[in-house]
Amino acid sequence: MDQITLEKPQSVSQQAKSVRQAIIDADVHPCVRELADLKPFMSAEHWEILNTFGAGARTPIGYPKAVPEAHRADAKPADGGMAGSSYEMMRDQYLEPLNIEYSLLSPLRQTGQSAPNPELSRALARAINHWQVETWTSRDKRLRASIVIPFEQPEAAVAELEKWADHPDFAQVLLLTRTREPLGRQHYWPIYQAAADRGLPVAIHVFGSPGHPSTPGGWPSFYVEEMTSHSAACQGMVASFIIEGVFEAIPNLNVISLEGGFGWVPPLTWRMDRLFERFRQEVPHLKMKPSEYLRRNFYFATQPVEEPSQRQHLIDTIDWIGTDRLLFSSDYPHWDFDDPANALPKTLGEVNRAKIFRGNGLGLYRFN
Q1: Which of 177, 241, 344, 362 is the most buried (most CB within 10 A)?
Q2: Is the pTM of this model over 0.70?
Q3: Is 49 strand, coil or helix?
């Protein structure tokens, strides 16, 4: 679990080692070089609104100066632009040396998913989807896009999902963890039903700015608090999906938790199972224990891999979740990027490592 640190970032030459195992990476972040990248995919009216007023994300916590946009220092193009904005750099620094077979793109900037202006939210989601195809997937078939949707508007979200569902370059639907309502609420079910009907998994990435604080007690004071609270948001998301009955209504829905780690999964599930046994009369719509839904319908991307002082504790956690429920993710080009050469314990064994690195992704995603 050696990770790239801010103080000593791993250079391209150090990273470009021989990786024999083909990799399916569940979480890679492309970035627009500048806002004008989206102009060709927006109406003049929507471009004027975006260029004049911005998208209006509602959160007081930003990335610190030391890690702008959470990016690696060595992944920023020399001629300007944000890390993740250059296909050539991504190809030479990441795709080629790490033997990437497929990468799932998860755009986070200028997506409109948390924009308070509903019309602008729809326009940005449309633009980002076009941009993914024109800028990335049309240039390299190893890159597969996520359908970005204005998830707070289910009708519009389903329409955007349906527009791209048959496009071979799209492999999943993308939402964020911090939403206006818990994600298991029936408000969002039309999105999940449409995704399941199309055979597309729903990936839920950390972040989002619905206007609610990221902790139950209010806004945190420090960036490290913000980052730590991601696991709490993921736990709430998992519990909401299961307890609200999403998987009883849509049993063929696959959900992926992205960039929230997975060390918290066993204790959360133990707690849900225990409370379910005590209060099952309250939730008669649930026909199985929460742990059974979790193992049937959820996948967890590995990054950030937890690093307990005793390595066996990590192995035990992976064993409990199941190696068939984990997907390797690098989080390229962020500062805490996980190199596949070091991310998973060797003691997992080659069969289990191969499942996490590639096999589970082949079975889950739609690769044509």
Answers
A1: 241
A2: yes
A3: helix
